[in-house]
Write a structure and sequence with these properties.
324 residues, alpha/beta, four-stranded parallel sheet, 8 strands, disordered N terminus
Length: 324
Amino acid sequence: MQDNSSRVGILLANLGTPDAPTPKGVKAFLGEFLHDHRVVDLTRWLWCPILHGIILPIRSPKVAKLYQAIWQEGGSPLMVFSQHQKAALEELTGLPVELGMTYGNPSTLSGIDALKKRGCEKVLVLPLYPQYSGTTTAAVFDQVARALKTMPDVPEMRFVNHYFSEESYIEALAQSVEQMWNEKGKPDLLLCSYHGIPKRFADNGDPYPKHCEGTTERLRVRLGLNPDQIMMTYQSRFGREEWLQPYTDKTLETLPAKGIKRLDVITPAFSVDCLETLEEIAIQCRDTFVESGGETFRFIPCLNDDPAHISMMSELVKRHTQSW
C-alpha cells in the first residue's frame, strides 16, 4: 500500500471476550469491563461492593450459560471473527495487523507490543466501533494511553475516531441487507438495533445517538426505503436508570399488534457477531417477537469478515496512514 509499510502497523480494537465460557472466565471478564469508569461512572466506594458482592456472583454463572450456547470450536464468536478480520485486512493491505481488546485477551498492550516486535514504529488504532461513544471508542483510547505509559520507546500513534457515515461502511451494510432480501424477500420492517448507553451520557455530550441516527438515515436512503419501512432501537440495557430509547425488546412486543408480522433485524453498531447479536437478538428477541404475534423474524449477521467490510477497513487505513 505504501513504501514504508514495514514501519506502519494496524491495531484492530474491539471490546473483548471471556477466555472461556465458564463462570470463572466470565467473572474475570465482567469484572474488568464493569470496573471501567467509562462504562460505569459511579463512585468506587459505592459501586465496588455492589459489583463484587452482588452482580458478579449472580450474573457470571447466568452469562456463562449464554456464552456456552454460542461458543464455537475456535473460541467465542467475537474472537473467531476478529481473527478472521485481522488475517483478511493484513492480506489486503500488506501491513502488519494485530488485535488489541479493551478487556480480556489479547490486550491492547500485547497488541502494540506485537506490532513493535514486527518492526512497526508507527501504529494506527482502528476501534471497530462505527459510532463513537465514550463507553467504547474512548475506552480504547484510555487503554492505549495506559499501555504507552509502560513503554520506554513509544511508537508514533494515530486513531480512527468513528466511521458511522462512511460511504463504504453504509454500502457494506446495504449489501448485507440486500443479500437477505434477494434470497428471502423483503420484510414488513427493517429494524436497526444499536447497543444502548445510559441516556445521561448522551445528555452530557456523548454523540453516540446522533451517530446512530446518521447511520440509520444513510442506510435508509441507500436502500430506497420510506421512513415507515425502517426503524432504530437500542438494546442491551443494564441497571435501573434510563437508557437511550426506544428499547429493542419493548418495541418487539408491540410491533405485531401494529401489523408488522415479518421483521428483519440488523445491528449496525456491532462489527462482529457476539453474545449481544447471536444470543440476545437472534434468540431472545426472536422469541419475544414470535410470542407477541410475529410470524417471521430474520437476523442479518454482522459484517464480520465479509469482503466489503474488509475493503472498508482498508480504505480507512489508507486514508489515515497517508503521509506516513
